[in-house]
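Record type: monomer structure entry
Structure origin: computed from sequence
Chain ID: A
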Amino acid sequence: MPLSVLNKPSNLLLRLFSLWLPLLLLVLLGGGVAYLQGRNYRLEAVTAQQSAHLNQSITQISAELSHLRHLMLILKGSAALRHGLPAEGPWQLARVDSLFRRFAGIVPGVSQLRWLDEQGKEQIRLNIGPRGLVRVPASELQNKADRYYFSQGMQVPAETVYLSPIDLNVEHGQIVDPIEPTLRATLRTGIGDGLAPGLLVMNINLAALFDRISAAVSDGMHLELLNAQGYWLVHPDPQLTWGLDRQAKHNTLAVRVPGLWQRMVRQHYASGQALGGEWLSYSFLQIEDQDAQPRYLYLLVTTDDGRLAQIRWALLPPILLVGLVCLLGGGVFLYRIGRADHQRWQLGRSLAREQASLRQAYADLARLHETSQLLQNELVETRKLSALGMMVAGVAHELNTPTGGALVTISTLHKQLQQLEDQLNSGLRRSDLERFLRQCDEGLGLAQHNLQRVAVLIKRFKRLAVDRSHEQVLNFELRQCVDDLLASLQPLLKHQPVQIHLDLPESLTLHSFPGVLSQVLQNLIDNGVQHGLQPAGGGNLWLEARLLGPMQLEIRLRDDGVGMSAEQLATLFDPFVTTGRHQGHIGLGMHLVHQWVTQVLQGSIKVNSAPGEGSCFVLTLPLTVREPVVAALD
């Protein structure tokens, strides 16, 4: 129960209502979920029936088409056809007629058998209909060269049966009544088979097949069969079928239900779809792949709204009854809860007072945390200034030697110039002038060399100082960054028995924070010199880098020093943890390294070490940082 309800007393009826209202909402929600679950369960059964009808219909049509292809190959391979239509010699059409009659007598559904020569002229045609088997007289035979099934059939490879689109049989320009859904199967002759060149054509009446697959669908469902253009071939309403043949172009699924048709074209298979109060599933069957575009038949099984209404009314009574029982039982239970409300109210007041005390304690802890954070920030700045001061002192020491040399050289040249002036007054000899010019040239060369050393040191220190002060994302070379750092640390390192070995790729450019990376490497080198290596025995530091991929860099800094124990490794990156506190260290160096590497340089750092085996720090950094992290820099 919410604390706001417990903290103040209220009317018992209002309290009961406030408790009973969530129960009512829960019952309504549970009833809705139960209704949806039950409805979905029953709809799954309906969907399973629809899928079964679709699979059965596809199986029957596929079997019919496969059987038709097989029959065409048998017909072409018969000896009677080879004798009747030889590639060389006169044709014996009577033998072909006898073969056609025997074939039509044993194959149901055949409405016409023909053979056309390679110009498309019918040479023999047998009609199978209500009047029996009738051979069309030669005078009534037609040229079918302009028919699509002839042109398509003559283009397919030999031994490949071409199946035409399904349409209505037309005689003398009129649709045959009763309608005869017709599929034409063609097979070329005269290509390596000993037959005369031409096209064998068989017309199949699919009316019986369509009746069978339509009759197999029951339980408030009906089957629809559509061609690739969306025209119905089978539909419960006969007026909607064969719109293409009857010049009724509006009788298509694409016109009447465009949303469903677009979905069927885009996704050839779906089960359990709701549309306009009906529940439907559909699939497709590819009947020919020899055309430029593969041709499909779409099968659609729908369940009318009456069946769906039965499902709804079968679920509502039990759900309403269970909901009513839950409301009554919950009301009794909540009444008992209401009688104990006063005690809970008193407990709530005590809890509120304790919460106020906890909030005050939390505020005090927050102030203490803020104070400690400020102290930590000041220590971080002190650490930065200390590192910068060490670099300044080292650079100043390093500048002293070449600057002093340059001053001594210039002073010497000045004295020699005065001597030359004295010699001019007393009498200048050629040898004196040549000696002065030689000494001047040597002195100026020495001064220039020392001043160049000064310029290089100042340039490196300036670049290092600017990088660290600006803290901006820049393009820089890793080798130059390391060289500048080591040059600034040289005055400190040359007094230590430490050898630094570099193994860095040449011309490796990063888009990152050069100052932060320099500070990280300085802290790691300082840590290795101060903690990792023995002060008297010295040792070696290896700084290595290699590419892990096109966008990632690995930097390793390892030493052969004393190493670290497991306890030291566990707290290495914690703030204010140090083994050199007696030497003035505050324990923020490695903590800052971890923060800079993970938050600013957007990389990772890990360390491998064991007592007596040295330490190895591994930095994995991106070559290009994603974006500056202002908070981490601050």
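Annotation 1: The longest strand covers residues 278-288.
Annotation 2: The chain has a mean pLDDT of 79.
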